Amino acid sequence: MSLLSVILLYFTFKEQRNFNKVQRASNDYEILTKLRSDISALNENISIPVINNKSGVISHQGMSYIEELRKNNNPNNSIQEKDFDHLYKGAIEIAELCFLYYSILKQSSLHNSVKNIFFNAITIHLESIRHLFHFYKNKEINIIPGSNTAANDIWDRYINNKELLTKIDTIRNDRF
């Protein structure tokens, strides 16, 4: 009788462990889905008011329009300093949420194939942010300074983004 109890106890613990693993994966899935949705919403809510010397102000919604600011491709396009400041701070917020998302994803009990699907869902956001920082670093954006700002001050203001870019590049090169 005691051998049978030990065997039943073993199977009970084994099933409980399997159930806990499935429950953890389900919780991870829900958290990642919600966070991905929040990241996408923040991304789409960012307004990029691009000033074009020929056609006036065109306001774009979403980080996917960062390329519109690149003066190499659009020499007539520019952005007001206050609008760029808002865009830059929004990009930092999205990047920080992407880092949190990535950290949760790395630690999750989801299968690697599912992790890759979740990972691919945020890479476009990281790529847009990376482009923004790259364009800024290389002064490829025409920023119109505010009345109280010297033109050189604009380029020195956000200079400390190397750590953020390093994190983005590390994440971009990772696979599960």
Fold and architecture overview:
It is a single chain. With 176 residues, the protein is of the alpha+beta class. It is built from 5 helices and 4 strands; from the N terminus they run αβββααβαα. It has a 4-stranded mixed β-sheet with strand order 2-1-3-4. Helix 1 runs parallel beside helix 3, helix 2 runs antiparallel to helix 3 and helix 2 packs across helix 5. The longest helix has 44 residues.
Mean pLDDT: 86
Distance between the termini: 47 Å
Could you give a short account of the major beta sheet? Answer: 4 strands, mixed
Report the C-alpha radius of gyration, rounded: 23 Å
Helical content class: 55-70%
Lateral strand order in the biggest sheet: 2-1-3-4
From the spread of the alpha carbons, the general shape counts as elongated
Structural class: alpha+beta
The gist of it:
With 176 residues, the chain is α+β, with helices and mostly antiparallel strands. A hairpin with a 3-residue loop joins strand 1 and strand 2.
Topology:
Blueprint: H1 2-45, E1 47-52, E2 56-61, E3 77-80, H2 81-107, H3 112-137, E4 143-144, H4 151-157, H5 162-172
Parallel strand pairs: 3-4
Antiparallel strand pairs: 1-2, 1-3
Helix pairs in contact: 1-2, 1-3, 2-3, 2-5, 3-5
Could you name the key traits of this structure?
single chain, 176 residues, alpha+beta, 4-stranded mixed β-sheet, 5 helices, 10% strand, elongated
